[in-house]
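for the recovery benchmark. C-alpha cells below, seq after
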C-alpha cells in the first residue's frame, strides 16, 4: 500500500493534493510507464497507463480526493486530453502554495497573484500560436500519415541504458517517445533517425540544398552554437531567425533575405505534430478522417456536414484476444454479437434488410422518460410470477407480430434488450442489437429513412428504414479467436457518414489503454481543426511561461510597490504594501511549478539521469532567453532550427528537417486553469468537517498522519 506522511502543522488539503499528484508523475512526458494497481482485499490487479484510469483505481473518498477526481473527469469528458498535465500541475502548484503559506504570505495575496500570474502567462503564449487553414484542400493528393510513418519511423536501435527491449515494429510506437532528443545544455545525444519528412514550411532555398551543403553549414554553425532546445515531444528544434507576430495569428520569420509567413496547411504535417510519440494511434485517426471526408463528399442524405471532421460519427469497437495487425478503420457500424447470432448474420449478409430504431430499452416494463404510472391502482394476484411471465410472453409475441408484419429483420435499440425477445427474434431470423449509441441511431435514421420510436408497438410503415446490409466483419483465423464467445458484425447503408475503428490486442489488459490513446489522438486533431490554431509544442509554451514569470518577479523586486495597484484593486494600503512585498515570492513559487513540470519532462525523455542535470539545462535556456531581451523571440528562434538533432552522434549524410511538434490550444489552457482553480479552492478551505461514526474506526497509523492512497 502506498502512503505519504502528512504534516498536521501544515495545510493538510494541499499536502493531500501533492500526494495524489505524485502517483501520476510517470504519465507525463514521452516515456510513459504503466502501473499495476493491486487491491489487497480482493487480491485483484489492473494495468493502467493514464491519469483517468489511475484515479479510478485509487481511494478518493476524502473531500480533496473527490474534488481532484471531479476536475480530472471534467477535463477528460470535455477534451479527452490534458489530464496528465492537469494532475502534475495540481501537485506542483499545491507545493508552491504550501511554500507561500510557510513563508507567511496571506492567503488572499496567494490567490490574487497566482491567478493574475497564470492569466498573464496565457496572454504571453498567444505569440506561439500557429494558424491551421485549408488542410482539406489537397487531402486527396497529399501523402497519408500511413505513408509518412514508414519514413518517420524506420528501423531503430535502442541506446544502451534505456532498458527498452522490443521488436522492430514495436519500436515505431516509442520512437519519438524516448529516442530522438538533444539536451537543453547543447550537448549532443545519440539519437536514431526518426523523421524523413521535408517540412512544408521551410524556405525553397533551404529545401533545394544538397545534403553536403547542409552538412557544411551545420559544421560551421556547430562552433558558435550556445545551446540546443530539441525534444521529440516536449522540446523542439531551433533556428537563427527573427520572428514577429502578425495580425491574423501568423508567425512571420525575418531573415536577411525577405520576411516569410508560415502556417500549417497540410493534414499529414499536423497529424505528425500532434501524434506525440503515438504513431500507431494517429495512423488510425488519419484513416478515419480521410474515410469520413470521402463519405462526406459522396453523401446524399439531407444532413449538412458543417465540419469536415465529425468526431461524434467515429466509434471504436474493441476486440481483445486478436493480433494487433487486425486493427483497422472501416465504414459503417461494427459491433459485437453473441456467437449464437453468427449463423443468422451469415444468412442475412446477401440481402438488404429493413431496420427499426428504438430510442429506449427494448423490454416489456420499459416506459419513456416522463411517463407517470396510474395512481391508487394496485394489482393483486395469487401468483405474481406467473402473471409477470405471462405478461412478458404476451408482449414478446406482440412485438414479433409487428416485426413480421413490416418485414423487419434488424432492430437497433439504444438501451437494454430483453434476452427472451432476442432469443425469439433469432429463432425467427431477426437480429436484435442493444446498447447502440444515439449518434449511430441518428446516422442510420438519416441514411435509411427510418424514424426512431420509443416502443416497437408504435411502429408503422413510415418508421421502417431500408437498404441496410448485415455482414460478418471479417474472417478471423480460428486460432486467434479461441475462448472468444462473441463475433463482430458490420452494418452499412449507402450514404451513411459513420466510421468505426476496430481496435485489437492479444493482451486483454492493454485494450483499455489502446482505446484511450486513440481517443486522445483523435481529440487533439479534432480541436486543432475546430479552433484552426495550435501551439508550437515540445515544451515551448512552458518555457515561455517560466521565463515570463521570472521576468515579472524580477520587475516586482526592482520596481517595489509601483505595480501593486495594477494587481490588486480597491484594497487597503496595508494590503497593497503587502502585495508589493510578497508578489515576487508568489510569482517565484508559481514559476517553480513550471520548472518542476519541465524538469519532469526532461527526466522522462530517458536522456537525463537526475533532476539536477535537467535543472541545469533548463537554467541555461532561461539565462539565454533573459539575455536576448525577448524570451518569446528567443524560443521561436531556437524552435525553428533544422539541424538541432545530430544523427548517430555525428554529422550524417542524410540531414533532414524534423517535423514540428504541436499542442492543442484550448485543452492545454483549460488544464492549466482547472489545476490552479482546484489548488486555490483547497487553499481557501480552512478545515474539513467529518460527520458520522466511520471516522472513529480509522487505524492508528492514519490518525498519526499517514495518507493511504
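predicted aa per position
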Amino acid at each position: 500500500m502506498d502512503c505519504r506522511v502528512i504534516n498536521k502543522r501544515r495545510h493538510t488539503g494541499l499536502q493531500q493534493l501533492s500526494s495524489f499528484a505524485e502517483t501520476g508523475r510517470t504519465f507525463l512526458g514521452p516515456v510513459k510507464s504503466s502501473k499495476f494497481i493491486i487491491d489487497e482485499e480482493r487480491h485483484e490487479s489492473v494495468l493502467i497507463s493514464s491519469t483517468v484510469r489511475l484515479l479510478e483505481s485509487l481511494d478518493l473518498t476524502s473531500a480533496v480526493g473527490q474534488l481532484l477526481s471531479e476536475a480530472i473527469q471534467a477535463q477528460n469528458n470535455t477534451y479527452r486530453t490534458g489530464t496528465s498535465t492537469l494532475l502534475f500541475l495540481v501537485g506542483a502548484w499545491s507545493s508552491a502554495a504550501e511554500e507561500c503559506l510557510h513563508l507567511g504570505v496571506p492567503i488572499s495575496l496567494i490567490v490574487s497573484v497566482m491567478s493574475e500570474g497564470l492569466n498573464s502567462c496565457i496572454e504571453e503564449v498567444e505569440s506561439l500560436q500557429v494558424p491551421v487553414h485549408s488542410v482539406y484542400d489537397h487531402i486527396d493528393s497529399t501523402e497519408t500519415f500511413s505513408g509518412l510513418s514508414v519514413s518517420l519511423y524506420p528501423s531503430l536501435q535502442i541506446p544502451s541504458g534505456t532498458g527498452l527491449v522490443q521488436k522492430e515494429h514495436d519500436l515505431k510506437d516509442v520512437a519519438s517517445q524516448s529516442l530522438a532528443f538533444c539536451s537543453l545544455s547543447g550537448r549532443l545525444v545519440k539519437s536514431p533517425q526518426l523523421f524523413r519528412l521535408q517540412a512544408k514550411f521551410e524556405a525553397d532555398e533551404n529545401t533545394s540544398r544538397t545534403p553536403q551543403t547542409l552538412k557544411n553549414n551545420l559544421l560551421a554553425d556547430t562552433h558558435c552554437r550556445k545551446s540546443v532546445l530539441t525534444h521529440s515531444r516536449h522540446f523542439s528544434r531551433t533556428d537563427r531567425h527573427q520572428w514577429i507576430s502578425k495580425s491574423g495569428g501568423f508567425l512571420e520569420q525575418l531573415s536577411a533575405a525577405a520576411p516569410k509567413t508560415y502556417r500549417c496547411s497540410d493534414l499529414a504535417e499536423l497529424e505528425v505534430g500532434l501524434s506525440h510519440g503515438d504513431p500507431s494511434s494517429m495512423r488510425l485517426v488519419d484513416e478515419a478522417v480521410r474515410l469520413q471526408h470521402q463519405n462526406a463528399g459522396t453523401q446524399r442524405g439531407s444532413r449538412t456536414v458543417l465540419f469536415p471532421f465529425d468526431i461524434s460519427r467515429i466509434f471504436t469497437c474493441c476486440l481483445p484476444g486478436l493480433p494487433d495487425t487486425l486493427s483497422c478503420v472501416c465504414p459503417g457500424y461494427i459491433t459485437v454479437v453473441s456467437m449464437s447470432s453468427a449463423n443468422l448474420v451469415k444468412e442475412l449478409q446477401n440481402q438488404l434488410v429493413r431496420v427499426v430504431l428504438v430510442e429506449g430499452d427494448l423490454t416489456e416494463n420499459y416506459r419513456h422518460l416522463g411517463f407517470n404510472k396510474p395512481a391508487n391502482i394496485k394489482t393483486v394476484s395469487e401468483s405474481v410470477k406467473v402473471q409477470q411471465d405471462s405478461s412478458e410472453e404476451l408482449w414478446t409475441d406482440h412485438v414479433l407480430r409487428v416485426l413480421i408484419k413490416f418485414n423487419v429483420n434488424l432492430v437497433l435499440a439504444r438501451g437494454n434488450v430483453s434476452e427472451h425477445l432476442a432469443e425469439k427474434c433469432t429463432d425467427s431470423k431477426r437480429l436484435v442489437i442493444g446498447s447502440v449509441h444515439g449518434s449511430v441511431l441518428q446516422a442510420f435514421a438519416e441514411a435509411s429513412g427510418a424514424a426512431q420510436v420509443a416502443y416497437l408497438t408504435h411502429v408503422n410503415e413510415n418508421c421502417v428504414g431500408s437498404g441496410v446490409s448485415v455482414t460478418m466483419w471479417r474472417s478471423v483465423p480460428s486460432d486467434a479467436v479461441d475462448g472468444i464467445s462473441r463475433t463482430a458484425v458490420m452494418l452499412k447503408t449507402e450514404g451513411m457518414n459513420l466510421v468505426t475503428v476496430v481496435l485489437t490486442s492479444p493482451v486483454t489488459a492493454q485494450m483499455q489503454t489502446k482505446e484511450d490513446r486513440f481517443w486522445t489522438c483523435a481529440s487533439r486533431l479534432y480541436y486543432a481543426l475546430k479552433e484552426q490554431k495550435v501551439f508550437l509544442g515540445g515544451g515551448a509554451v512552458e518555457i515561455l511561461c517560466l521565463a515570463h514569470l521570472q521576468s515579472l518577479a524580477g520587475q516586482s523586486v526592482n520596481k517595489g510597490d509601483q505595480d501593486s495597484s495594477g494587481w490588486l484593486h480597491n484594497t487597503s494600503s496595508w494590503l497593497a504594501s503587502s502585495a508589493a512585498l510578497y508578489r515576487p515570492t508568489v510569482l517565484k513559487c508559481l514559476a517553480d511549478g513550471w520548472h518542476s513540470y519541465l524538469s519532469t519532462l526532461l527526466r522522462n525523455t530517458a536522456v537525463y539521469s537526475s533532476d539536477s542535470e535537467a535543472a541545469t539545462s533548463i537554467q541555461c535556456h532561461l539565462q539565454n532567453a533573459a539575455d536576448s531581451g525577448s524570451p518569446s523571440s528567443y524560443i521561436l528562434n531556437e524552435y525553428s532550427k533544422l539541424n538541432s538533432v545530430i544523427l548517430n552522434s555525428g554529422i550524417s549524410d542524410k540531414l533532414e528537417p524534423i517535423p514540428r511538434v504541436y499542442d492543442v490550444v484550448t485543452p492545454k489552457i483549460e488544464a492549466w486553469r482547472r489545476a490552479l482553480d482546484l489548488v486555490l479552492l483547497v487553499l481557501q478551505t480552512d478545515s474539513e468537517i467529518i460527520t458520522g461514526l466511520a471516522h472513529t474506526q480509522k487505524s492508528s497509523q492514519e490518525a498519526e498522519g499517514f495518507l493511504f492512497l
